[in-house]
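Narrative progress, year one. The postdoctoral researcher (J.K.) led the effort to move from monomer predictions toward full complexes, under supervision of the PI. The following entry was the first complex the group processed end to end, covering 720 residues in total.
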Amino acid sequence: MTEHGGAKRADMVTITDVARHAGVAVSTVSYVLSGKRAISATTRQRVLASIRALGYHPNAGARALASKRANVIALVLPLRSGMHLPVLMQFATAVVTTARQFDHDVLLVTADEGPDGLRRIAASAMVDGIVLMDVEMHDPRVPLLRDLERPSVLIGFPAEAENLTCVDLDFYRAGAACVDHLASLGHREIALLGAPAVVYERDTGFAHRTRAGFTETAERYGIAATAQPCEESFDAVRQELAGLLERHPDLTGLVVHNEAAVAHVLAALPLLGRQVPHDISVVAICPDEVAERASPALTSVLIPAEDVGHQAVTLLMRKLEGQQVPAATLLDPRLTVRASTAAPAAADSAAILPDGAVMR
Amino acid sequence: MTEHGGAKRADMVTITDVARHAGVAVSTVSYVLSGKRAISATTRQRVLASIRALGYHPNAGARALASKRANVIALVLPLRSGMHLPVLMQFATAVVTTARQFDHDVLLVTADEGPDGLRRIAASAMVDGIVLMDVEMHDPRVPLLRDLERPSVLIGFPAEAENLTCVDLDFYRAGAACVDHLASLGHREIALLGAPAVVYERDTGFAHRTRAGFTETAERYGIAATAQPCEESFDAVRQELAGLLERHPDLTGLVVHNEAAVAHVLAALPLLGRQVPHDISVVAICPDEVAERASPALTSVLIPAEDVGHQAVTLLMRKLEGQQVPAATLLDPRLTVRASTAAPAAADSAAILPDGAVMR
DNA sequence: TATGGACTTCGAAGCGCTTCGACTCGCGGT
DNA sequence: ACCGCGAGTCGAAGCGCTTCGAAGTCCATA
């Protein structure tokens, strides 16, 4: 390509080149591109032809400078330990893909730059808006977000969500959905194995909300339910399970909301004399990928990472256009039945309906 | 902050504001920031004080426009199926962190935009350079990279690496390291369970190189060695293993280079009557995270994702400064011994040295 | 026939920054 | 006393784009 004619070094084609080639003013080319003023069909065609002929791409910096819009959004990822990476990646992909649909690019910011990073990015006008992931209940970045001149969308819910736009899986209903499923299979005594204790202490909202959904729904069904945190090492898992089974010998259903522990749970149960799903059913709240990869494949409520990412960007774009958007968006959990759940073996396998009626 | 004085709407501080506040010319401020001309210590201090006082951040677009340097690099991620996501994430983090050390930001580009995405990013002068991940042997993006005016670094090796800069784990030596370890434990018959067949067909370089390192090193030790691809479902893994053990009843060492199959291998071996590591030792080539999470914890050669990402960015920065860099950078594998390997139980547990001598 | 829109298009003024040439010192050398 | 020179600073010219006001056309209205 470069060896064509008398192309000077650094053959960046500018809007001026296009204008000259098409025989119009620079501003006309600009208006063809932006559509902000009416341009006759014939002129438009001529300009577009020139653009194609020259392989013109607008200079992003110049455009940002003149229009005060960078057409870039920031994606702030945590990379804190304890986060499950595949889910993050799915988020990220969805965010990028959706952003591209709106003709925006994505700047990747890691949280270890801290609030200063956010401030820098925003103040330098590199980005028009911000998507913030893995928000904690008391997140130091949240107050900053309010001061920033740029719109933002959070994935997750901080304690103080005033004036903020948040998106997340509806963890309450996710916890509930697991109980629904186990109840409908006829289980009468179940337990929730959650995140490590430190996560609860950190006040990460989703852990609490899942537990609430689990506990309250079980209560509604009149099912005996225990909830407890769980560390991620194999020994810890095994110990937790052993204790749990000892205290609740009739336990037949287990909800696991801890991606890292899932494999260990499946490995430990047989060692404790419980076959899955014959003796005990297991439902996980985790990405499909993890559920499918486990042996046996896990019935699971998936974290709809792609939906969340897509929603977040869509909301952000609305805000960029000055539209009003709902402060909270909760996404529906979806439960996929796989090989790890079944009706309890020994028990009377009647299904119990929420109102307490028994279906035979 | 905003409610301070008579701050106008959109309180973006410009270099002009700083200059006025410090009582110097705009160009002086610029030179203080860039260090491209000598500025007296007193002036510099005054300017820096003003910058701090006003909370000035240079406008990225203006800077890019005037200097023709965006201070942004592109990170092109694949998101093709079969890639293990956590590793990607580690890469990404390392890339961002390192880029920040060089005062650059990172634009996230997904491969599904294809070559056009690359072209757009480069032509619009949004980025100064490109880091391309998960390069295939015959990658359609590679020829494009040569035409682009921007420097780039590949992670992985394409078949035709002329004029390109590539970084990767030394998979040959990774395969070799696994054999070294097993041999030193006294194993005499081992096998490699690799990626799904399709990966080999796609000519992904690393799969072939691992196998070569494995096979050739085993030969050097005079150890019986088999290598075969492996699909990722549990049933496939179990079947592969069953066949393998039938054909090679004395097999005592297994190298797994397939992150997705790792868990299944560990689950299937007991079912086939083999305890790990008593009856059979398992070494994996996978991220530490996966190895640690498995039960039992796996002896593994880790993919040094962080090093690779760091190296890639460092090389790119050198290229941006016009320096010459080596075309190929291979990173050393590191093997971590965990619970999944031991001397073979029944066998004579002598250690064999590479030269054929036997150590008792 | 004058008049005023609609419809198109043009020219020029920036956006905030970098960079180049030029200017002003003060100093050592002769 | 003069020149030359380096150090420090300034002013102005863009970088490539958007956008505003205005100008030119053409046709329908009064």
